[in-house]
Amino acid sequence: MRNLYSENAFTGLEAAIVLIAFVVVAAVFSYVVLGAGFFTSQTAQSTVHTGVSQASSSLQEVGNTYGVANSLTSPTAISYVNVTVALTAGGTPIDLSSMVVSYTDNNGGHLPNMTYEGIGTDGATCPAVGTGSGTWCIGQKINNITTGGMLDNNAQMILMVGLPSSATPNTQFSINFQPSVGAVLPIQRTIPGGLTAVQPLY
């Protein structure tokens, strides 16, 4: 008996179903790949922006670091140091009041997180800054418009850092200024063998 139904139609229908399935799978796969690519590029972009922001918010030392002795007539140690800082070229303003300041020397002196004492008036010493105090302050702001501890572009601040009693002659010490955003500014100096009331430190 003659078969009234042709299998060619079924073969074409099956091929169409398989083709549609392949197209759908390929579309889903390409969507996943594109989504992963977009996510990766956004993550990379965010990383680059963060890196640029941190790199552009670094401090630099301006001029000399001066040490002030604990006595005008017979000094035996450095009471505190004055460090003038400014932003690097193109840097964004930094809030120095939230900065972490640490100190260490080769006599066993170590202050991991010194206490911020605020802003002095006209370069006057902050009350608590002195030998063994473990404190620091903003002694003076130069050409700075913003109030508080925010360091502006083209401005300078004189930071007064009180040293411990271990800051005696011939002592090597290091002070690290770590702003909330940006790289650490390390200051490494050696206290001379003979002290005067005020001396530059090298």
Concise overview:
The chain is of the alpha+beta class and 202 residues long. Helices cover 24% and strands 33% of the residues.
Supply the key terms.
single chain; 202 residues; alpha+beta; seven-stranded mixed β-sheet; four-stranded antiparallel β-sheet; elongated
What does this structure look like?
The protein has one helix at 7-55, and strands spanning 59-61, 65-69, 78-87, 94-95, 100-105, 110-111, 115-119, 135-142, 150-151, 156-162, 172-178, 185-190, 198-201. It is built from 1 helix and 13 strands, in the order H-E-E-E-E-E-E-E-E-E-E-E-E-E. The longest helix has 49 residues, at 7-55. Residues 52-56 have low confidence and may be disordered. It is α+β, with helices and mostly antiparallel strands and 202 residues long. The chain starts with 6 loop residues before the first helix and ends with a strand.
Tell me the major beta sheet.
7 strands, mixed
Distance between the termini: 112 Å
Global geometry: elongated
Based on DSSP secondary structure assignment, what is the total number of beta strands? 13
Mean pLDDT: 82
Structural class: alpha+beta
Radius of gyration, CA atoms, in whole angstroms: 32 Å
SSE ordering: HEEEEEEEEEEEEE
The percent of residues in helical segments reads: 10-25%
The parts where pLDDT drops under 50 for at least 5 residues are 52-56
- Number of continuous helical runs: 1
